[in-house]
Amino acid sequence: MDTRHRVSLFFAFVLTVMLLTGSSYAIPAFSRQYGTSCTTCHVDFPKLNDFGKAFKDAGFKFPKDDETLSKFPR
Question: How far apart are CA 55 and CA 60, in angstroms?
Answer without folding.
Answer: 5
